[in-house]
Amino acid sequence: MATESVTEAKAAAATPEKKVGGFEAWGKKWGLSLSLLTGLAIWLTPISGINPIQHKMLSIFGGAIVLWITIGVNFAVSIFLLICFLYF
């Protein structure tokens, strides 16, 4: 029993905890909101010379790029959201 707790303590000491700080922490907190606001801002901005479908695509991909840069959510989740937005 004592050797198991010593082994567990050594394993816990050997694996350093990953501290999230700086841009990564900011992205986790605000990335999703910022990407939604970016997509909405592009959607509400009148752009001449493109049809409504192109305008929709531009706003979706603008929000997706912000989401990927900030890493607000996991990449798999962001791809799932992107495909859902493109479908509708």
Morphology? elongated
Gap between N and C termini: 58 Å
What about the largest sheet?
A: none
**Structural class, please?**
mainly alpha
Tally of DSSP helical segments: 4
**What series of H and E elements makes up the topology?**
HHHH
Low-confidence spans: none
Rounded mean pLDDT score: 81
What does the radius of gyration come to? 21 Å
How much of the sequence lies in strands comes to: under 5%
What report would you give on this structure?
The protein is mainly α and 88 residues long. It has one domain (25-87). The chain contains four helices and no strands. It has helices at 2-14, 23-44, 52-70, 75-87. Helix 3 runs antiparallel to helix 4. 10% of the residues are buried. The mean pLDDT is 81.
Task: Give a short synopsis of this structure.
With 88 residues, the protein is mainly alpha-helical.
Layout of secondary structure:
Layout: H1 2-14, H2 23-44, H3 52-70, H4 75-87
Helix pairs in contact: 2-3, 3-4
List keywords for this structure.
88 residues
